[in-house]
Each structure stands twice: as C-alpha cells, then as structure tokens.
Write a structure and sequence with these properties.
By secondary structure, the protein is mainly α. It has one domain (3-135): NusB-like (N-utilizing Substance Protein B Homolog, Chain A), CATH 1.10.940. Helices cover 71% and strands 0% of the residues. The protein contains seven helices and no strands. It has helices at 3-14, 25-39, 45-60, 62-72, 83-97, 104-118, 123-135. Helix 1 (3-14) crosses helix 3 (45-60), helix 5 runs antiparallel to helix 6 (104-118) and helix 5 runs parallel beside helix 7 (123-135). The longest helix has 16 residues, at 45-60.
C-alpha cells in the first residue's frame, strides 16, 4: 500500500474512537481487519502492523492531541467539530507533532486530501486553516 492508502486506513480505524470506548478498540481492530479483506482486498501483514501501531499511538495521545487542537482552533472545540474533521485533525496533528518521519507540509496536504474525500464541502478549508497554525 502507498503511504496515502495507509493513512486513509488509519483515518478509518481511528474514526471508530468516536463510537467505541477506548477499552473496546482492540476488539474493534480485529473487526476492522476482518472486514477490510471483505471490503477492499487482502492486506499485507506489514501494512496491517503499520496501521495498528500508528493507530494505537494516536489513540494513546488523544487527550493531548485534542488539547492542542482546542488551543489552535479559535472559536471551535473538539466537542463542536464534525467527527470526520476531528478525526482528520487528530491524525494530522499526531503526524506534525509526534511523527518525525512525516514532514509538516505532507501531513497538512494529506489531511486536506482526506477532508476533500470524506468531509463536507467546507471541511478541506477548515482542516487547512487549523493545521496551518501548527505549521508556524
């Protein structure tokens, strides 16, 4: 899988946090990969490991990431944001702040692309605006 495809799968997985308790995420991971083969294609073991590891790291830091988002998103809180936009922001903020392998510009660009694909009409502008504050 390409990095973009892996990022999209991580987005899809961590989106489940909004609807499941943290304690249930291990079970959700199992469901995710079982259904992945049905919906998309068989996933390589290395790709599954990458998705699992990065997703876990993001979930472990959700409170910290949400606090950062709340500080930067003037007039918005994570509780008021759309779930898709929030999930995209969480992934991108993790990559910008904690993942040294992902350049900031790439994280922002990929987040905007996810917002165009999965968000509402104004999502890409909103995501770009919030993430621009992390680039400075």
């Amino acid at each position: 899988m390409s990095r973009r495809e892996l990022r999209e799968q991580i987005f899809k997985f961590i989106f489940r946090v909004e609807f499941n308790d943290t304690e249930e995420m291990q079970e959700q991971e199992q469901f995710f990969f079982e259904n992945f083969a049905l919906e998309e294609q068989d996933i390589k073991e290395a790709d599954a490991a990458y998705i699992s590891e990065k997703s876990r790291k993001i979930i472990e830091k959700l409170d910290e990431i949400d606090e950062m988002i709340n500080k930067q998103a003037k007039g918005w809180t994570t509780q008021r944001m759309g779930k898709v936009d929030l999930t995209i922001l969480r992934l991108a903020v993790y990559e910008i702040v904690f993942d040294e392998d992902v350049p900031t510009g790439v994280a922002i660009n990929e987040a905007v692309e996810l917002a165009k694909k999965f968000g509402q009409e104004e999502s890409s502008g909103f995501v770009n605006g919030v993430l621009a504050k992390f680039a400075n």
